[in-house]
TrEMBL record, chains A, B:
PROSITE patterns: IDH_IMDH (PS00470). InterPro entries: IsoCit/isopropylmalate_DH_CS, IsoPropMal-DH-like_dom, Isopropylmalate_DH. Its EC number is 1.1.1.85. Belongs to the isocitrate and isopropylmalate dehydrogenases family. LeuB type 1 subfamily. One of its GO terms (cellular component) is cytosol. Binds 1 Mg(2+) or Mn(2+) ion per subunit. This is 3-isopropylmalate dehydrogenase. It holds the Pfam family Iso_dh. NCBIfam families: leuB (TIGR00169). Catalyzes the oxidation of 3-carboxy-2-hydroxy-4-methylpentanoate (3-isopropylmalate) to 3-carboxy-4-methyl-2-oxopentanoate. The product decarboxylates to 4-methyl-2 oxopentanoate.
Length: 348, 348
């Protein structure tokens, strides 16, 4: 298979972890006789530096002419109080590319069970797939500030269509998994949540083999810790998804392990869920696993399941052997970001 | 001291746990020569049954003429799909009584460390006080549904004044504690969050001894599990407070242990944070500790610190001796809701 991949490495540790994902993809291409070509563009703080825009036209063009996007991380403290901020690039990119579905797998790796803040028996075999709506809700509704600056508002809005297109993906995924979808909302308070409930309940009839459950977001925040094994596919709106998926990311013991896919009708982007971690930049201590697993999600997206499987297997191997960056605290010798990448690429 | 206390026991297990709180208050009155009188009114499903309104005028009147309100729990599955729902009573009550500050202490009891889903070393000595805004934000902004039902919206709004009055309480509390306030928001996305940041940053200058930190809500949801000891006072808006405080409630091993106070300029209400737990109603298995600790918060509110201290001490004693309801799973013999209440009252 031939794939043109846009690499938007972004800020902080973004470039160094993306490099390891590319190594893994190169190894796969070699092994399976695929042709992956990589083209680079700026995003986030790196793009503000160069273009004064965190998601410049050049970058948008490259994304639109590529088959997939490999994304690193975004965020730079030097822009913390600036008018134009790196995160705006992320939101603009999601919206302009129509990446409405953010998919995050949450798993507990056996070799890392004791790294989790949760007790091992609660998390062993946890396997959750979170479907978060990514281009609507309070993120993109009208925002206002009064002239005197003493009042502000954010509008949360949803249409049935926006809910349906994501819900279909979630139910389809559930069919291939443990046949359960949990809708997380706040239907006892929010009108948008009631729209989610109505829409998803109606649509669920087309998937009779899938069980639909409802959970208020406050309760979900508890259940995620008390009994994460109860979840199979989670379906939720943008802001609740942001909170619940980050909370869920602690289960596996490290946020440095969780990849994600952001999918739209036309484009697809793959990125680790961790941030740009500025303090770690260019120290060789950033964990590349989440970026490498994002590359595996990219392969799956194109139906290259065997290839993805090999990456996943190589990652498990590296964890089992303790070939990991210091954040996982497995071995005492220091193993760098790029050493982990090399091990995984060699293994492939 | 003479106190007129309105008892709004509400639905499900509300009445039985409230009874235990009253026992404790009666014991305190006897011991310290106070006069506490209790007057009862309906709220929630119980009030819909009788008045067709989850927060009827009679109940409002009683609240307004009382010194404090002891609240049980609200929610009844039989109204799940009804037009008028029990939770509306809760929101109406908060708004009409101006209860803008919801305060929830989160502690890990030493005798329950092994009941927590989190590892003991992470939670030992956790002592957090959450200040959640309770009468604003997306809970009370304008809600809309399109005529065809295919679009819905909820408006999140805040004014500087709403933020300031809560922030002052949080900073004052921090002064008497470990001098740290963590503001939880989503200032990288929401205009209202940026208003919170500006307002709280400005106001913090009046409390130079208190350290102010900022945390995005998604990161906060992780930090609460990874390292809850970092928190002293948490300050946040209504919806984020709902989610984060419920998440935090798992730390102590049981939601049945966490009391809360909802305070306004004129009125003050005290309630366990758990819900009405319909499946447990009248089985004698509901944990009364949260309700009893809410009574202790009531006493503190009126400056009766010694009295509150004794209740807290009695609760710790009951936990240590294993005189607890089955949910805590400490002893094998079954000890009922009212036996726990009796033990605590006798101890006092
Ligand atoms: C950086 C921020 C705007 C973003 C979000 O809230 O969506 C991030 O937290 C994420 O989850 O990708
Ligand atoms: C019942 C519900 C409306 C309420 C809320 O969201 O405020 C509850 O979760 C709470 O925290 O008191």
């Amino acid at each position: 298979m031939k794939l043109n991949i846009a690499v938007l490495a972004g800020d902080g540790i973004g470039p160094e972890v993306s490099d390891q994902a590319i190594k893994a993809l190169d190894a796969i291409a070699l092994e399976f006789d695929h042709k992956f070509s990589f083209n680079y563009a700026k995003v986030g703080g790196a793009a503000i530096d160069e273009y004064g825009d965190p998601f410049p036209q050049e970058t948008l063009e490259l994304c639109k002419t590529s088959d997939a996007i490999l994304f690193g991380a975004i965020g730079d403290p030097k822009y913390d109080d600036a008018e134009i901020r790196p995160e705006q690039g992320l939101l603009k990119m999601r919206k302009e590319l129509g990446l409405f579905a953010n998919i995050r797998p949450v798993k507990a790796f056996d070799s890392l069970l004791d790294k989790s803040p949760l007790k091992a028996h609660l998390i062993k075999d946890v396997d959750i797939s979170i479907y978060r709506e990514l281009t609507g809700g309070i993120y993109f509704g009208k925002k206002e500030v009064s002239q005197d600056g003493n009042y502000a508002s954010d509008l949360c809005e949803y249409s049935k269509k926006e809910i349906e297109r994501l819900a279909h993906l979630a139910f389809k995924a559930a069919k291939t998994r443990r046949q359960k979808v949990t809708l997380i909302d706040k239907a006892n308070v929010l009108e948008t949540s009631r729209l989610w409930r109505r829409t998803v309940t109606e649509l669920s009839k087309a998937y009779p083999e899938v069980k639909l459950e409802y959970l208020y977001v406050d309760n979900a925040a508890m259940q995620m810790i008390l009994n994460p094994k109860q979840f199979d596919v989670i379906l939720t709106e943008n802001m609740f998804g942001d909170i619940i998926s980050d909370e869920a990311s602690v289960i596996g013991g490290s946020i440095g392990l969780i990849p994600s896919a952001s999918i739209g009708d036309k484009y697809a982007l793959f990125e680790p869920i961790h941030g740009s971690y500025p303090e770690a930049t260019r120290k060789g201590i950033a964990n590349p696993i989440a970026a490498i697993l994002s590359a595996a999600m990219l392969l799956e997206h194109f139906g290259l399941f065997d290839e993805a499987e090999i990456i996943n297997y190589a990652v498990e191997k590296s964890l089992k052997l303790g070939i990991t960056t210091p954040d996982l605290g497995i071995k005492h010798e220091e193993i760098s970001t790029s050493k982990v990448g090399d091990f995984i690429a060699d293994f492939i």
